[in-house]
Amino acid sequence: MRAKAADQTRRRILNAVYQRLVDAPSEQVSMDKVAQLAEVSRSTIYTVFGSRAGLFNALGMDLLHRGGFTDMVTAVLQPEARRGLRDGITANVHMYAAHRDVLRALFSMAQLDADAVGGTVRRLEDGRTQGMNDLAQRLHDQGALRDGVTVDQAGHLLWLHTSFDAFDLLFTGRSMSPATVATLLAYAAEHALCRPV
Question: What range(s) does the HTH tetR-type domain occupy (predicted)?
Fold first, then answer.
């Protein structure tokens, strides 16, 4: 019973942070406001998450799992790396689209709150970097890369094509649907990196 109550409290706090990021994306997230929205005391937030940075780390992990991170990893890791590129970018776009407003606020806030939010964004980006470097190596190992494209170059280009900003420029800036964004980014990445079939 106690564990269930603790999980519910944790969920209410995370939901309050989501709400705050969507309702006031240009304002720094106030722990007082989060506590008020979650109907808990400020000290409860620190008891549950340890620190402001701990709260944002938990939010980052929650975003990944609620947004489809497992599906994206499964898509990238399929045996044929070239298909993993296409399906991985598609799953990545859908993950971004699921929480676009929260992600935009987080990426913007990372510049203002480097310790708490910036650290969370850096960890998310470090994971994406490693994943794209691994995919680049698999593309190389399977002979899929174009002549003259190195594994490092492929990793950089995959990182670019899977970035939140690449997604958001097309989704918001060009008013494209997630499916259209996914198709365009996957096409661009595959044609920039891979040998013609």
Answer: 7-67
Q: Are 59 and 70 in contact (CB under 8 A)?
A: no
Q: CA torsion, points 76, 81, 85, 90, in degrees to nearest 10?
A: -50
In this structure, what token pair is assigned to residue 80? 């044929």
Collapsed DSSP state (helix, strand, coil) of residue 197: coil
Give the predicted TM-score (pTM) of the model. Answer: 0.86
50 three-class SS: coil
Residue ranges and CATH numbers for the domains of the chain are: 1-50 (1.10.10.60), 62-193 (1.10.357)
- The pair of structure tokens assigned to 154 is 């492929």
**Are residues 57 and 120 in contact, defined by beta-carbon separation less than 8 angstroms?**
yes
DSSP 54-77: HHHHHHHHHHHHHHTHHHHHHHHT
- Quick one: which of 192, 128, 130, 194 has its CA closest to 165? 128
pLDDT at position 46 is 94
Q: How far apart are CA 41 and CA 45, in angstroms?
A: 7
Per-residue pLDDT, averaged over 192-196, amounts to 96
Pair of tokens at residue 54: 């701990």
Tell me the per-residue pLDDT of 144-180, one tens digit each, with 9 for 90 and over: 999 999 999 999 999 999 999 999 999 999 999 999 9
3-state SS assignment for residue 39: coil
